[in-house]
C-alpha cells in the first residue's frame, strides 16, 4: 500500500469513528463528532490527538458493526 492509499484509509477510519460517535456517543462524544466534521484537516488532527482513546473506542465500535 502506498502512502496516499494509507492516508486515505486512515481518513476513512477516522470518518467512520466520528460517525459512530455521532450515532452512539453521549453528549460530549456526539458534539466532538460534529466538531470533527466541521473542522479542517489541521483541526481534525488536533481533535484526534486530544482524544485518541475516544476515537479508538468508536473506531472499534464501527468496525464491530461493519465487520471491517
Describe, in plain words, how this protein is organized in 3D:
This protein has 68 residues and is an all-alpha fold. The protein has one domain. It has helices at residues 3-24, 27-38, 41-50, 52-66. Helix 1 (3-24) packs across helix 4 (52-66). The protein is globular. It starts with a helix and ends with a helix. 15% of the residues are buried.
Report a brief summary of the structure.
The protein has 68 residues and is mostly helical.
Q: SSE layout and pairings?
A:
Layout: H1 3-24, H2 27-38, H3 41-50, H4 52-66
Helix pairs in contact: 1-2, 1-4
Count the strands?
Answer: 0
**Outline type:** globular
For the residues shown, what is the average pLDDT? 90
Oligomeric state of the chains in view: single chain
Distance between the termini: 17 Å
Radius of gyration: 12 Å
Order of helices and strands: HHHH
Domain count, please report it: 1
Write a concise keyword list for the protein shown above:
68 residues
